[in-house]
Amino acid sequence: ARATSRNTWQLHNEQIRRQTQRRLEIECGLRGALDRDEFSLVYQPQVSLDGWQPPGIEALIRWHWPAGPCHPAEFIPIAEDSGEIMRLGEWVISEACRQAVAWHAAGLEFGRIAVNVSGVQLRDRGFADRVVALCQRAGWPPSRLELELTESALILDSENLRQCFQVFERHGIQLAVDDFGTGFSNLHYLNRFPVKRLKIDRGFVADMLRDTNASEVTQAIIHLGHALGMRVVAEGVETHEEQAQLAAWGCDEVQGYVHTRPLPPREMAQWLRMAQE
Ligand code: C2E
Ligand code: CA
Ligand code: CA
Ligand code: CA
């Protein structure tokens, strides 16, 4: 028994060593990656279910790391810890706005462009003013920019956060709560901040047709959002069955593979062109 537990312990140690190594490599790789042009954005439409309205578009970051594939779910938390997220996050906003201006100039119809913003960015002093300045520099109206924030970013209530939201409101910058339902603890912030949209987390959508709990949570989020005068978006919608069920429950918008995977700019433009024909 002792030998077995020693082996387990060694295995565990080896695993930790490897994870630490990977983390360090990513942290190192992220440094200077912006200057080496290693990032790009892909785009995914948010399609309305209540009659035809031009879709919203979410921008998602991709890292073309020479060392190998690395997904945002892996490198974003590391960029948050190292502080790299500050420059990266501002690049995402200006690149998304620049692309939106170009599509708009090409006559493509869409509503807002949405970007993901991490709590670390939000807590940085002057963030809101910089977002407005980035929009203005790109020539994109702030009222057609949406910031997707997670619950954890909104729960920490500070004076700085309140000031941020005042600036957003003054300029019409829209706010969405991302991954809604995964942090379900204190919903106080929904009353305090001008949230326009709730995004139902992909996990609930994936299970809702076969799991009663996921189904109940999904419906409860739709009701809650509507009761508070918000629009509700389901993310990770993969099938027509899922979309039909969400439509029957009154969900306002869907995003997911049922329409398209996130696309590079040129293909996104084609998708928009097809959608408006
Ligand atoms: P998220 O904001 O919740 O984005 C949804 C994720 O689900 C994306 O993964 C998207 O590619 C994926 N997805 C979309 N439709 C479907 C579907 O039908 N089925 C399945 N299985 N997946 C679908 P992605 O692009 O790997 O991004 C992962 C997370 O990384 C995002 O989750 C977001 O939290 C974060 N992220 C991505 N880009 C940025 C960024 O520019 N800044 C920040 N701070 N975070 C970002
Ligand atoms: Ca998002
Ligand atoms: Ca999500
Ligand atoms: Ca997320």
From TrEMBL:
Bilayer-crossing regions: none
Residue ranges constituting the EAL domain according to the UniProt record: 23-276
Origin: domain of life: Bacteria
Coiled coil: none
Signal peptide extent: none
One term of GO molecular function: kinase activity
Keyword terms of this UniProt record: Kinase, Transferase
Protein's recorded name: Histidine kinase
Organism: Pseudoxanthomonas taiwanensis
Whole-protein residues included: 638 to 914 of 932
